[in-house]
Write a structure and sequence with these properties.
The chain is mostly beta strands. It has 1 helix and 10 strands, in the order βββαβββββββ. The chain has a single domain, classed as Metal Binding Protein, Guanine Nucleotide Exchange Factor, Chain A.
């Protein structure tokens, strides 16, 4: 495995069109690569990668009024830019102090700062049947236990 340069925070990020901008001021607690059918459809890809962080470490700098919210079963809410459609944030109602952001939207492709042991694949039991991945990350049939 190659050495990954660790990130110096704060780090800016945002949507494709630039109407929504945010800043992350701390490392992600963990990163999950989700393979469920809902994420595949929402992100039009085989996997959606989310980073968990305490809300206090993420500030929306610009365009909060340009975010649309879509409720997702059973208790989540996704936020995306209403202009370009870029997915940016995800919230779970039962953990109000935590949020997810999509680290691919960080400027410069920087590492979200999570510890190596806190990255994993979830819902691999429902991945697309033609999806292949070969890495050493832990893989959970459903969510992480």
């Amino acid at each position: 495995m190659e050495d990954i340069e660790m990130t110096d925070f704060p780090v800016p990020g945002g949507c494709v069109c630039g109407r929504v901008r945010y800043t992350v001021s701390g490392a992600a607690d963990f990163v999950v690569h989700c393979h469920c059918s809902l994420c595949r459809r929402t992100y039009a890809g085989l996997v959606a990668t989310g980073a968990s962080i305490e809300k206090k470490h993420l500030k929306i700098d610009k365009g909060e009024n340009n975010l649309s919210t879509y409720p997702t079963p059973p208790n989540g809410r996704r936020q995306f830019c209403r202009t370009c459609g870029c997915s940016l944030f995800y919230y779970l109602d039962d953990t109000p102090e935590t949020m997810y952001y999509y680290p691919a939207t960080l400027d410069g492709g920087v590492h979200p700062g999570h510890p190596d042991e806190e990255e994993y694949h979830a819902h691999v039991g429902s991945k697309a049947n033609w999806e292949n991945f070969d890495d050493d990350l832990p893989k959970f049939t459903e969510g992480k236990v």
